[in-house]
Amino acid sequence: MRIFPDVYLTPPINLRNVCVPLFAGYQRERAMSQSDARRGDILIVDDTLPNLRYLQALLTVRGYDVRGVPSGQMALMVARSAPPDLILLDIKMPDLDGYDVCRQLKADPQTGDIPIIFISAMDAVLDKVKAFDAGGVDYITKPFQVDEIIARIQNHLTIRILQRQLQQANDELSLTNAELRQANQSLQASNEELDAFTRTMAYDLKNPFAAIIGYAELLGETFHDDPLPPAERLELVEQIMRSGHQGLRIVDALLMLARVRRNAVETGPIDMTVIFHDVRRRLATMLHQYQAELVVPAAWPLASGHAPWIEEVWINYVSNGIKYGGQPPRIEVGATPLAGGAIRFWAADNGPGVALDAQDYLFTHFTRLEKVGQGQGLGLAIVRRIIEKLGGEVGVESKAGQGSLFYFTLPAFSLDG
């Protein structure tokens, strides 16, 4: 029995001659194929029914899921309703030839990635080129060798599986990237809200602290005008003033931390002599109160940085050395050029030093190490942020009972950039 009797691609096939030897080994093939996992869904398109049945039987016993249709129109309908993993496509068919079927399948996004292998008795080079131009991935000439067609089918199914796995991995990666972008956007928005809240809170706190300090100063002046001011009242006023100044310093530190996180600054040559003139002026009261000695070199190497920020770094280092230095405190500052175009600036004190296990925590947020002789809460954390943003690093060298040397590095200034 055959359909479309005027369109034989090969001589009529005697089903007895085909099926008897094919099914002679069926029992042996069946036991193997049933134990294997599903190997692939294949759609065969051939208007010659004996050829169609032969290929169906050949592939079924080898573990493939096989569907067969005798026309191009049916192939389009089946492939679109339930896309197969691979299509074996005849060329000469009465309604639509294989070239047209292939072109329509490749033009459809739903079926465009299905590999199509042409099977035809036409073996001219032009026919093969035309098949590949239409979108085919391979071309098998009839009559074919069984081992050859199985090998080619399996190769293209393997490629198909790998392409699907790659596409799935790409889809998952795209989804992950989209989720990361969304998370980053949310985190950025949260950070901006937190920065805005921090700045607002800090500015709002400055006014009450300023009022506390102002009223305490007025009270102190009033008590001083009294010929017999109670010592206890003066002490309380001084405590109020110290607390107010401490609170104001904390607020200023929070504002500085927010600015360092948020702002990008232009760097340029730094005149440390000018900076230390301002450092001495700002710390004059503290130096006098503690009877501290500050030793500054006569000349400094020229570094690149942002002067207002570097001044804050020195204020932190020197004030720490004054508060937690020896009796009386002695702080020596200086600079040492390093290999590679960097300069190491340092502040050494004569205090009790910092234990080795405590040094790792000195430059973290809200860490106070007063029990080991050093500590500034937010101060050293701000120092680390400032210097890292300027391309340098911070550190401490200290041994218990031998004082401490706090340092930071900056790039040496160069006219060549």
Task: Explain what you see.
With 417 residues, this protein is of the alpha/beta class. It has 3 domains: 15-144, Response regulator (Rossmann fold), CATH 3.40.50.2300; 178-262; 268-411, Heat Shock Protein 90, CATH 3.30.565. Helix content is 54%, strand content 15%. The protein is built from 13 helices and 12 strands. It has helices at 15-24, 26-35, 49-60, 72-81, 98-107, 125-134, 146-225, 231-262, 272-282, 284-290, 307-324, 356-359, 379-389, and strands spanning 41-45, 65-69, 86-89, 116-120, 138-141, 268-270, 293-295, 303-305, 330-338, 342-349, 394-398, 404-411. It has a 5-stranded parallel beta sheet with strand order 2-1-3-4-5, with helices on both faces. Strand 4 (116-120), helix 6 and strand 5 (138-141) form a beta-alpha-beta unit. 24% of the residues are buried.
Summary of the model, kept short:
By secondary structure, the chain is α/β, with parallel strands linked by helices.
The succession of helices and strands, N to C, reads HHEHEHEHEHEHHEHHEEHEEHHEE
Taking pLDDT < 50 over at least 5 consecutive residues as the criterion, the unreliable ranges are 1-37, 369-377
CATH superfamily of the largest domain: Histidine kinase-like ATPase, C-terminal domain
| Residue fraction in strands | 5-15%
Overall pLDDT metric:
79
Structure classification = alpha/beta
Kindly, what is the distance between the CA atoms of the first and last residues, rounded to a whole number of angstroms? 88 Å
Strand order of the largest sheet: 2-1-3-4-5
Shape: elongated
| Radius of gyration, in angstroms, nearest whole number | 42 Å
Helix content: 40-55%
What number of structural domains do the residues give? 3
